[in-house]
């Protein structure tokens, strides 16, 4: 069954084993899933001759915007992300099949800025990483202290660069590299994607603290073996939670990609397509809940409209407030110099005052049991937010405004980066959400209340 009545347009970058498999799936299964293949690009166009219809062959990567894709899938080489990733985001959402590219901090920042500027999302294929969602959940909960990923295969399966290219195996099993994933990615860009996916799944550790191990094993002629070892912080009795997974992925002799990885990439493509309509874990938006989605750096505007449950403010209105707050400033201190938004708290407070409301800072030293939620119209949080990557996150943080609001007796997280409102449930659910956010140490909470509640201080329980 199709996800949408209008087909999603998909472009493929790269026509190796992965690209060929995805193109085949899109041509045979795409129509019934609501997916339309609109182009295939390969660095060597001759490789597509005779297998890709001429009308689908894209000869010039710079012309991909003319095909109007909704999603571009990169399965070529990390260099494509380095060189063209930010430009692709001008026209479409991007599924990165070579996450080792994101170990380069300049590339990481370029994608972040382009995603914010053009309103398109970045997704990351999980590849051969087993347990991605479990790692991400554990990391988000603060339960991850160490993560180590070991990939072993026959030396013919490696495509190494720099100093690693001259390393020779000294026995039946040789450790070629052991250290931070960030250091491995430029040396083995096509053999470190599993480790890179792990670093993105665990942003608290990131590329510098997730350990990658690359092993040349002459006995593994037709197989890639991936071991994932993780542990949590010591508990009250000094013992730590630990997990060790062992995955054997059949492969053709000398192949970079294992057979199971090819299947996983198709699922990642479907997940990215579905993610453009619905974020993982979010509930379908009930008709009565107003929810604006992120555009540019307008999270403050979205948070205001979401907490007030109607479209009262626009970028133009927020810019006008900035001018009133600093009428004589050439460079307005209350917004981004680039004109993309990024409004500060003064704009939010002035906007609420214009609606006859008030914003009260919550003292994080108070216990949340003292918060009188029935007297509060809604909450606006300022917190560190990771780069949007679909199922995964880049290990970067930016300040972000988020609205929480009760609608028909149910509290919702109305974060504009979510594809749909996230149900928090009753008051206990809100307090649990706030406790987790405040525990990060960088979260601030604004209570949106009426003037009367502000004057009486009735947002605070005294019993």
From TrEMBL:
**Start and end of every Josephin domain?**
286-463
User: Which catalysed reactions does the entry list for this protein?
Assistant: Thiol-dependent hydrolysis of ester, thioester, amide, peptide and isopeptide bonds formed by the C-terminal Gly of ubiquitin (a 76-residue protein attached to proteins as an intracellular targeting signal)
One GO term (biological process): NAD+ biosynthetic process
| Entry keywords, A to Z | Cytoplasm, Hydrolase, Protease, Ubl conjugation pathway
Keyword Plastid found: no
**Cellular localisation:** Cytoplasm, Cytosol
What Gene3D superfamilies does the annotation carry?
3.90.70.40, Dihydrodipicolinate Reductase, domain 2 (3.30.360.10), NAD(P)-binding Rossmann-like Domain (3.40.50.720)
Q: Which PANTHER family match?
A: ASPARTATE DEHYDROGENASE DOMAIN-CONTAINING PROTEIN, L-ASPARTATE DEHYDROGENASE-RELATED
What function is annotated for this protein?
Answer: Cleaves 'Lys-63'-linked poly-ubiquitin chains, and with lesser efficiency 'Lys-48'-linked poly-ubiquitin chains (in vitro). May act as a deubiquitinating enzyme.
Name of the protein? Aspartate dehydrogenase domain-containing protein
Lineage start? Eukaryota, Metazoa, Chordata, Craniata, Vertebrata
